Amino acid sequence: MAIPREGESIQIHSYKHDGNIHRVWEETIVLKANNNLVIGGNDHTIVTESDGRTWVTREPAICYFHARQWFNIIGMLRTDGIYYYCNISSPFVYDHEALKYIDYDLDIKVFPDRSYILLDEDEYAQHSKQMNYPDVIDKILKRNIDHLIYLIHQQKGPFSKEFIDKWYEKYLTYRG
Questions:
Q1: Which one is catalytic: 23, 58, 78, 114?
Q2: Helix, strand, coil % (nearest 5) of the chain?
Q3: pTM
Q4: pLDDT score recorded for residue 41
Q5: pLDDT tens digits, 84-143
Q6: For the segment 80-93, what is each residue's pLDDT rounded down to a tens digit?
Q7: What keywords are assigned to this protein (predicted)?
Q8: Closest Cα partner for 116 from 127, 106, 108, 124?
Q9: How far is CA 34 from the centre of its chain?
Q10: Which residues contact 142 (CB under 8 A, 6 or more apart)?
C-alpha cells in the first residue's frame, strides 16, 4: 500500500459495501502517515455526496484512520468543545488517488461531556440485508463498536484532548 506524504493534500473517498461511492472529501492535509495510520486535518472542505450534492464542513477537524481498525474518527473543534463522529468502517487503504474505506452505516457521535449515541442502526439493518453483509463483518463491526466505546470512556487515543490539540496545532502550521 502506498503512503501519503506529510503535508500533502489528499482526498478521502467513502464507499458502500457494494462498491458504490458514498461520499468524497475534497481536501485533507496529511499530518502523519505510515503503514498503519493516517492523521489528517481539514476545515471548510467541500464534501460531495453520491447523488452529486455538495456541502462544506463547518469547522476544523482532525481525522484518524487506522489500517487495522474497523472505524475512523473525526474530531470536530467547535466553540463549545470537541465533538467526535466515529464511522464504523473498513480499515483504510491509500492508492495515490485517495484514502479509501467502506462505510458500514453505523456511527457513534460523542459530545464534549463524553456522552455518546449510536446512530443509524436502522440503516445498517437495511443495508445489511440489501448488500448481504457477511456474518463475519457483523461480528467484526460489533467488536469494534465495543472497542470504540472503551476508548471513549477511557479518553484514550483520538479521544484524549491532548491528541486533538497536538494535531490541530500541527494542522495550523500547514495552513499558514
A1: 23
A2: 25, 40, 30
A3: 0.96
A4: 98
A5: 999 999 999 999 999 999 999 999 999 999 999 999 999 999 999 999 999 999 999 999
A6: 999 999 999 999 99
A7: Hydrolase, Magnesium, Metal-binding
A8: 108
A9: 17
A10: none
Q: Please name every residue paired with 103 in a beta bridge, in sequence order, or none if there are none.
A: 89
Compute the distance between CA of residue 83 and CA of residue 54 in angstroms, rounded to an integer.
22
Is there a binding annotation on residue 123? yes
* Strand ranges inside the chain, DSSP E: 9-15, 21-33, 37-42, 46-49, 54-56, 61-66, 71-78, 81-89, 93-94, 99-110, 116-119
Superfamily of domain 9-175: FomD-like (2.40.380.10)
In terms of phi and psi (left: phi > 0; alpha: psi -120 to 50; beta: otherwise), the region of 7 is left
The pLDDT assigned to 166 comes to: 97
**Would you list the domain boundaries of the chain?**
9-175
User: Does the annotation flag 105 for ligand binding?
Assistant: yes
103 carries a ligand binding annotation: yes
Question: Helices then strands (H, E): number in the chain?
Answer: 3, 11
Whether residue 5 lies in the annotated active site: no
- Residues 15-37 have pLDDT tens digits of 999 999 999 999 999 999 999 99
Q: For the residues 148-175, what does the mean pLDDT come to? A: 95
Question: Hunting for cell 463498536 — which residue is that?
Answer: 145
Cell of 106: 453505523
